[in-house]
Amino acid sequence: MSCRKIYVRLPESCTGCRICEMVCSLAHEKTGVNPAMSRIKVISFPEKGLIIPRVCRFCRNAPCISACPVEALSQDAETGVIRVDEDKCIGCDRCVEACNFGGINIHPEDKTAMACDLCGGDPQCVKYCMNRTLIFLRPEEYRTVKDRAILDKTVPSVWPEPAGRDVTL
């Protein structure tokens, strides 16, 4: 059985509201909301008219792990989550450079690597994404879901459906 991952359903559906960054930082930091401390990053490409959330893809044979000179990174066999041993991490940035997807960053205060931990199996970024741009599925579920209406129903959200607006794509 494969691990569930966070996927970007349709990049063009992201409005750039950055709620995902806010709830991520709130879930992980004792200091409150600070998007700079978020494990997910919203990146804007104005020349292409795109705004895309970037988050760890939990790669098999993750290059960030092999790039770490002090073996501070490991991968959870059950969830695929990249674990950071903050006592070992020296903040050298090699893991960040090795990641092709921008899924790992250096904490601005602690100066240690930080990556998505899926909020213990209940990713808050997915839960609070207003447009349901972020989804949490197994790879085989993501590949086989062809009908957007089915996909919309499989993605839980805390936001009510807007009255009179069709949210199916």
The CATH topology annotation of one domain reads as Alpha-Beta Plaits
Strand content: 15-25%
Strand line-up of the largest beta sheet: 1-8
- How would you classify the helix and strand content by structural class? alpha+beta
State the shape: globular
Roughly how many Å apart are the termini?
Answer: 29 Å
Our Rg estimate from Cα atoms comes to 16 Å
For the record, the CATH architecture of one domain stands as: 2-Layer Sandwich
Low-pLDDT runs of 5+ residues are 162-169
What is the tally of beta strands? 8
What's the CATH class of one domain, please?
Alpha Beta
Number of helices: 6
Major sheet, described briefly?
2 strands, antiparallel
The average pLDDT score comes to: 86
What's the SSE pattern? EHEEHEEHEEHEHH
Helix content: 10-25%
Describe this structure in words.
The protein has a domain at 56-115: Alpha-Beta Plaits, CATH 3.30.70. Mean pLDDT is 86; it is low at 162-169. The longest helix has 10 residues, at 19-28. It has a two-stranded antiparallel ribbon with strand order 1-8. Strands 2-3 form a two-stranded antiparallel sheet. Strands 4-5 form a two-stranded antiparallel sheet. The two termini are 29 Å apart. The radius of gyration is 16 Å and the shape is globular. The protein has helices spanning 19-28, 63-67, 94-98, 124-128, 139-144, 148-154, and strands spanning 5-8, 41-45, 50-54, 73-75, 82-84, 104-106, 113-115, 134-137. It has 6 helices and 8 strands. By secondary structure, it is an alpha+beta fold.
